[in-house]
């Protein structure tokens, strides 16, 4: 895919969060314009304590793509209880019955990204809206627990509880419990990689797992980007949006390496899991992303195990590009995911 044909946006040296000069000729021009408009003049959130992010999220630090669809006629919230008694919210985005019929509908369960530390039900709202509108699935977005308020792994427990609840109570939602797919971006891709292994072990059939720029290792053993076995970590150490400093920030709050006795190994490192017999998977990576190579290694392991797998790398963009709807690669990403969901659910 060629970069979009727009004039390069000027780089301002005084911008507190400007794009590193080494990336200017690697990134698509429409991404550079978007980034300079929305992020370059603001401090990077990984330089700010989580406590301050929490108090200033709504008005100061929220990403420009965040949307709140709660209260709309075809959007309904439900409460689900995790195995330890914690109750969390899942937001249901129903297809328009005038276009897609009265149901029941296939289901796509979404898990947002944010390094297991950031994120809520607004971050992936536009994407969930796209999937229910363009595919005709019931998109369910899960508000799982975050670190550091809760230990790493509790969010995975919520995700697993959500998947089982939808499978067991799908008819109450006007859903088809035999036609469920899962997916997420970044940390949400990690959670989905864990869930597809748990689902296989539990005999719970899934149509598809959508792993977008997935983190599938804990990075716990690597102090420096050059310590990591993946060339993309050093290659993209100073990338915009997600870089090595941000990875260390998230690791400092989630501390997966300190929970070896409490959290199953595949929850910390889904790449190390047994992938034989898991559901079909689409793995989507970004060229300018430090965790690009580990996601592609997961895809290659799936292929080696005989799992029906699609892999696509998007050039000219960094880690969270798919949220940035004005840029061309984000639009192509949505088209790709919609096509994969349609095929998986037979729509």
From TrEMBL:
Domain Alpha/beta hydrolase fold-3: 109-322
InterPro entries: AB_hydrolase_3, AB_hydrolase_fold, Carboxylest/Gibb_receptor
GO molecular function: hydrolase activity
Pfam family membership, one: Abhydrolase_3
Region annotated Disordered, chain positions: 1-20
Source domain of life: Eukaryota
UniProt xrefs under Gene3D superfamilies: alpha/beta hydrolase
PANTHER family on file: AB HYDROLASE SUPERFAMILY PROTEIN C1039.03, ARYLACETAMIDE DEACETYLASE
Protein name: Triacylglycerol lipase
Protein species of origin: Pleurostoma richardsiae
């Amino acid at each position: 895919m060629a970069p979009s044909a727009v004039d390069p946006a000027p780089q301002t040296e005084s911008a507190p969060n400007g794009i590193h000069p080494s990336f200017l000729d690697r990134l698509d021009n429409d991404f550079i314009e978007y980034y300079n408009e929305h992020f370059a003049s603001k401090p990077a959130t990984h330089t700010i304590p989580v406590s301050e992010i929490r108090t200033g999220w709504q008005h100061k630090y929220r990403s420009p793509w965040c949307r709140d669809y709660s209260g709309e006629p075809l959007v309904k919230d439900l409460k689900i209880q995790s195995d330890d008694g914690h109750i969390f919210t899942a937001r249901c985005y129903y297809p328009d019955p005038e276009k897609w019929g009265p149901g029941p509908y296939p289901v796509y369960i979404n898990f947002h990204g944010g390094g297991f530390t950031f994120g809520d039900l607004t971050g992936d709202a536009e994407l969930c809206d796209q999937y229910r509108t363009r595919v005709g699935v019931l998109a369910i977005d899960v508000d799982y627990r975050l670190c550091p308020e809760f230990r790493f792994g509790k969010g995975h427990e919520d995700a697993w509880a959500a998947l089982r609840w939808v499978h067991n109570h799908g008819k109450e939602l006007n859903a088809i419990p035999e036609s469920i797919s899962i997916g997420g971006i970044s940390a949400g891709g990690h959670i989905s990689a864990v869930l597809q292994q748990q689902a296989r072990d539990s005999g719970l059939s899934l149509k598809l797992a959508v792993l977008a720029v997935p983190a599938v290792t804990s990075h716990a053993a690597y102090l420096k980007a050059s310590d990591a076995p993946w060339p993309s970590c050093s290659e993209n150490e100073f990338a915009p949006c997600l870089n090595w400093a941000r990875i260390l920030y998230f690791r400092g709050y989630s501390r997966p390496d300190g929970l070896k006795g409490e959290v199953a190994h595949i929850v910390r490192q889904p790449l190390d899991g047994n992938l034989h017999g898991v559901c079909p998977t689409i793995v989507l990576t970004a060229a300018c992303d430090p965790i690009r190579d580990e996601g592609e290694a997961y895809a290659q392991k799936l292929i080696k195990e005989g799992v029906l797998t699609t892999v696509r790398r998007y050039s000219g963009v960094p880690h969270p590009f798919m949220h940035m709807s004005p840029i061309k690669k984000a639009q192509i990403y949505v088209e790709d995911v919609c096509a994969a969901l349609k095929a998986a659910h037979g729509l």
